[in-house]
């Protein structure tokens, strides 16, 4: 499926000295009594491309949702682009302007056109004049190769097209960091590649990305680092070749044996 995607790991891997854009330290997250994240520590540098994998229920979504405060952590600290995520609403808004999320089920507004889905946040959050917001939207729709669908409603598009619209919608916020939560797992197989291709292009352009995905071809070709989670913990992380060829932890080995 991914043979057409170039290997981009010759692109410079962010040097250890690159600016830290996400710092997660000793984070715990509970849903009632249930502990979904346990002592999570994670440092992400500008331009890094991280793939997060692990069994269902291991806390992958919860972790990335904590990074823009769609979930609230109970212990530890999360600092995004120099701003600590606490109850402070101004801080949360500041982080959400920098960090966009692409969801498994697209989360487009069904009663708005593609173009309206894209211009909403620029107009209301970035206070952009409508005409500028529409120009911006068309630029990013062209970028994901779907500009001709601008006047349609999401329900008139295929899943792959809807997900590309969702990515374009995020790009309209000109985010510094993009979070992807299994962006291809709700798609019919023939549509996976068109979405992955857009993600690969973003990676090539240097976008800082954290992607929850089980597309291991994508991980091998794009990721600087693969993180494996199980039972709310980061169990193992490594650069892709070492991660796939020489996993250290028994739980990682079991997981890889099941999906590869
Ligand atoms: P993953 O994305 O790795 O499949 P999640 O982060 O969605 O896992 O969930 C981790 C654990 O937290 C699961 O056991 C899940 O049932 C639980 N969980 C997630 N969201 C909630 C919630 N809103 N309320 C209660 N439990 C939740
Ligand atoms: Mg999930």
UniProtKB/TrEMBL annotation:
Residue span, ABC transporter domain: 22-256
Regions crossing the membrane: none
UniProt keyword list: ATP-binding, Nucleotide-binding, Transport
Molecular-function GO terms, alphabetical: ATP binding
Any matching Pfam family: ABC_tran
Superkingdom to which the source organism belongs: Bacteria
Family: Belongs to the ABC transporter superfamily.
Protein's UniProt name: Amino acid ABC transporter ATP-binding protein
